[in-house]
Amino acid sequence: MSPSRPNNLVSLPPSSRNSFNLATVFCADDNVPQCVSYINQELSSLGLSSWMEASSAGGADLRAVPALNAFFELLQIRRRTVATLEELEREQLKKSSTLDHMQMSNSRLRDQLELSIREKSGLHETERQLQLKIKTLQSCLKTEKEEVQKLQSIVASRASQYSHDAKRKERESAKLKERLSQLLVDRRDKKLAIDMLNCLGRADGKRSHWKTTKVTASHEAQMYKSMLRDYEASQRSLMLENAELKKILQQMKKEMIHMLSPRQPACRGAGADDSQEMLDSDGEEKTGDSSREILDRSCDQAREQLTNSIRQQWRKLRSHMEKLDHQVQNQESNKEVIPRETHENEMESMRREVQQCKEFIHTQQQLLQQRLNASFDDETAELLNGCYTLEEKERLKEEWRLFEEQKRNFERERKYFTEAAIRLGREKKAFEEDRASWLKSQFLNMTPFANRSRCSSTDGYSTLSIRSEPETRTSSAKSQLSKSSNYTSFSTPETAPAQRATVPSTSELYRTLRLIPDSGSSGCSNRGRRRELSSTTDDERDSRVKAKNRVYSGDLSIFSLGEDENSRT
Amino acid sequence: MNFSEVFKQSNQLCKVSPDGIYLATCVQYRLVVRDVSTLQILHLYTCLDQISHMEWSSDSQFILCAMYKRGLVQVWSLDQPDWHCKIDEGSIGLVASRWSPDGRHILNTTEFHLRITVWSLCTKAVSYIKNPKACLKGIDFSRDGCYMALAERRDCKDYVCVFVCDDWHLLRHFETETQDLAGLEWSPNGCVLAVWDSCLEFNISAWHQHTAEAIFLYKTWLWPHHKNSEQYKVLLYSLDGRLLSTYSAYEWLLGVKCVAWSPSSQFLAIGSYDEKVRVLNHITWRKIAQFEHPATINNTKVVVYREVEKKSAAGNDELSLDNIRMGSTLLSSQSKYEIHPTPFQMPVVRPDPDRANPKIGVSTLAFSSDSRYLATKNDNMASVIWVWDVQKMSLEAVLEQTSPVRCFQWDPRRSRLAICTGNTKVYLWTPAGCISVQVPGDGGFQVQSLTWHCHGDPLILLGKEQLCLCYTNTGTEDK
After folding, report:
1. B173 in contact with A, Cβ within 8 Å
2. DSSP string, B157-222
3. Are strands B157-164 and B169-175 parallel, antiparallel or unpaired?
4. CA distance B121 to B124
């Protein structure tokens, strides 16, 4: 379909309308076929089915149905177009309104733009003004500064001027004073006078002397003398102080050397620098010794040397101290960390143990309580009692056995004693007889030497009697023993002192008498005596005592064991 | 502690003779000489006018009484009561009068410091020393009395003249390197002369004398133009005029305020406007210690004594009963010392910047007789006395009084410091402790000043118009 066709179509109807207007009708009887064809054409161009056949050119046979259909369709189309037209119109209205709106906003924005432009220009203006102001201010400042400088210089010049003035014034016043005094002198002030009853003597009683060069020289000398005195005094005090300080320095040095020297061998293997240091100090000691000699001369060199050496020693000491400090710190850090941990661990474990023990005891107590209170039936009670009595019985039996043994021992001992007593009595009797016979013979033979014999005899007698007295029970045994052992020497009185020295001890006596009381001691009462026994019996007895003690109650056993330990240590 | 009865005196003129036997007091135009031990009047002399200055001669034989208004000096003798001597300075005027160390010469300074007239009592001879400088301590005699140092101003320069006191022979005359010499002092051994510059230079003080504040300002930017001007300057000269050392701690600030030698001549303490005391040693003349006077004391080793006033024990009832009698005692309330724990804040007074000689800095220094302690007073903490241990070179004690300290002095024999604050109490400090003693007297004896007797006891207390003696060594104390 060419677009020219609708144009033609459009263009045609007006003409046709015109023609219609002219002709008033489109279709007339005469032009029906044309009209039909025209309409057909038009319809086909509109895309509608042509309802008139070209073939049916008769024209008269217009079929109504397709025509009506076409008509309806046309109407439909028309309605649709009208609707779209309306819609378009509406849309156009809307568009125009938006356009208006846009235009308005546009104008507004334009106004704003103008305003802002105006503002901007205003700001520019103010900026310019401010800059101008700054410039003026800067210039002002410059002028002010200049003024200040000027003023400063003015002030300074004034100051100098015033000082000059002041000086001038002072000079003037001095001049005035001069003039005044001159005038006063010239006027011969009558009032200026001294009125005194009589002149006084000098305070030191001397007469005043004339002013001569000699006197002035003496004044000088006096002055220098006093100065010298002062200097000497100060020098002396300084020297004293110096000496004191030197002494202190020396002592310090000595002490330092002393302090440093014993560690040197220890440090010898420590390191290269240490050995170096040591060498230094060795060298220094020598210089120190030499400097000490120089010191007395108190020259600068010696002082320097001394101070230097002191300084070095001090440095060394300090480094040493630091080293020691480090060591101590290290040791402390090493020592302290580990023991604390172990200690804590130990403590923890011990605590745990104690806790366990406590728990154990507690459970035991509970069990005991339960057994005593709740489940105290006869059977268990009897059983328990039976157990206890059995234990008791066994213990008693054991004790009984021991007791029996002891008893037997006692018996044996007693028997020994009685036998010994009998023997002693018999021997004593023999001895008495011997002595009587001996005394008799002595008395008969040596009457002139009665003195000596008596002396010796009393001596021997007294020794015997005195020795035997304290131990009344064993006296018989002792005398027996002394007699038996020293019987041969007894005949010679010269050996009396020696005899006295060899008075046997109780233990010896016992040994010789074979009266060893190996079972005779009751408990631990004869402990001291037991000590004196021979080693073999001692061991034997110890073991026995232990065995015996074990039988006794717990407390006693603990005590005896402790005692044993003590005795052993 | 015992007190004598109260005697009259005027102008605070009361002096013990150098030998410690006599006590001379002036009452208007009368001179009264008493025995110190019995306090009985031995002599009474009448002068021509009210006495303005009184001084004992070194041999305790003569007393000089100066009447400055009249330009007169009268001398009295103890041995010969009828002996008299009158020196008239005439129309030239008199501003100062003093004995020479030998006690046979009198040095009169005339008005305007025109000259010093030396009158000899031996020969009636008169000699003049011209151009003495008008300064606080322009003249000083050495301790042995041999030499006199005199500050001299000539041709706008400072000079020091050293005279031999024996015959007034000018031994040395040398220019000092000072802008404006303020004072000079011999060391106690008489071999070193300390000379110090004024806190301000002469020309500047003349210029800005009414604005002390401006001093600080001007110094910062004006003074660089004067390179040769230093405020803090102490110079040390030997006897023969050689400059031994110069010490200057800082520049452009107010400088030296006071200077004191230790009795052993070992130390020279310099108090200055920066609230510090600098101690120089006698060998190198360098600073060995610096004692600062901070407003807060933090050192725990320092003992801080604080005077606390307590109300009298009498209650209100008693007060109402006899109001009149209690009046006087109420005025003089009791006080005692309390030891304050050490972070201690001092009462500090800001100096008035609009006045000359601002009340700031160390104004008074005193070494104890054994050179062991140094007592100082800082002017902006006027009620506080600082006691420094010279051996340890550290602060020993701080005494805070309730009122500003007027005067303090060391016992010439012991380490004992007496302090008065213008109230009715006298305060004593010893290394062992501190006490406050009420001075008995009707109407309140207000202690303005005090001096120790040269033997250490008694202590002479001077009120406005009275005096009394305070005996510290009572029998019980000796035990």
Report:
1. no
2. EEEEEEEETTTTEEEEEEE-S-SSEEEEEE-TTSSEEEEEE-SS-HHHHHHSTT-HHHHHHHHHHT
3. antiparallel
4. 5
Residue A263 has pLDDT above 70, yes or no: no
> For A487, how many CA atoms within 13 A lie in the half-sphere containing its CB?
14
A213-260 helix and A300-373 helix, angle to the nearest 10 degrees: 40
Locate A166 and state its tokens: 């002041």
User: In angstroms, what separates the C-alpha of A283 from chain B's closest C-alpha?
Assistant: 36
Select the residue of B92, B124, B171 nearest A196 (Cβ to Cβ).
B124
Which of A189, A196, A219 comes nearest B85 by C-beta? A196
Residue holding tokens 């020994």? Answer: A416
- pLDDT in the model for residue B475: 53
Find the radius of gyration of the CA atoms of chain A: 77
Which among A487, A537, A478, A465 has a CA at the least distance from the CA of A508? A478
**Nearest neighbour of A163 by CB, restricted to B104, B203, B282:** B203
Number of Cβ within a 10 Å radius of residue B386: 23
Angle at A408 between CA A407 and CA A409, to 5 degrees: 90
For the residues of B312-335, what is the DSSP string, one character each?
Answer: -S--HHHHHHTHHHHHHHHHS-EE
Q: Which residues of B are less than 8 Å from A180 in CB distance? A: 92, 112, 114
Contact in structure between B94 and B108 (CB atoms under 8 Å) = yes
- Which residue among A171, A189, A208 sits closest to B122, beta carbon to beta carbon? A208
Token pair, residue B314, equals 């009498």
Mark which residues 412-451 of B lie under 8 Å from A by CB: none
Matching residue, tokens 């009249």? B70
**Concatenated DSSP letters for A241-253?**
HHHHHHHHHHHHH
Kindly list the residues from chain B whose CB atom is less than 8 angstroms away from the CB atom of residue A224.
Answer: 240
Q: Give the distance from residue B339's alpha carbon to the nearest chain A alpha carbon, in angstroms.
A: 39
pLDDT tens per residue, range B171-223: 889 998 888 888 999 999 888 899 998 876 432 222 222 333 333 333 333 34
Contact B225 A156 (CB under 8 A): yes
Q: Distance between CA atoms of B316 and A442, rounded to whole angstroms?
A: 121
- Residue B416 tokens, joined: 């004992």
Closest CA of chain A from B188, distance in Å = 12
Residue of chain A nearest B83, judged by CA positions: A197
Residue B402 is encoded by which pair of tokens?
């309730």
Does this complex have an ipTM over 0.85? no
3-state secondary structure of A436: helix
| Cβ pair A203:B167 closer than 8 A | no
What's the pLDDT score for residue A37?
A: 80
Q: Is B87 on the interface with A (CB under 8 A)?
A: yes
Instruction: Indicate the pTM of the whole model.
Output: 0.59
Q: How many angstroms separate the CA of residue A297 from the nearest CA in chain B?
A: 23
A292's CB contacts (< 8 A; 6+ apart) are A250
How many CA within 13 A on the CB side of residue A529?
19
In this complex, the residue of A177, A195, A219 whose CB is nearest that of residue B171 is A219
Do residue A193 and residue B88 have CB atoms under 8 angstroms apart? yes
Contact A191 B126 (CB under 8 A): no
Q: State whether A171 and B226 contact (CB < 8 Å).
A: no
Sign of CA dihedral A313, A314, A316, A317: positive
What per-residue confidence (pLDDT) applies to B372?
Answer: 92
B386 forms beta bridges with B376, B398
Summarize pLDDT for A413-468 with one digit per residue, the tens.
999 999 999 999 999 999 999 999 998 888 887 755 545 444 444 444 444 444 44
B154 touches chain A (CB under 8 A): yes
Nearest C-alpha neighbor of B459 from the set B421, B412, B415: B412
* Dist CA B141 CA B107 (whole Å): 12
- Residue B428: predicted pLDDT: 93
Average pLDDT of chain A to the nearest whole number: 72
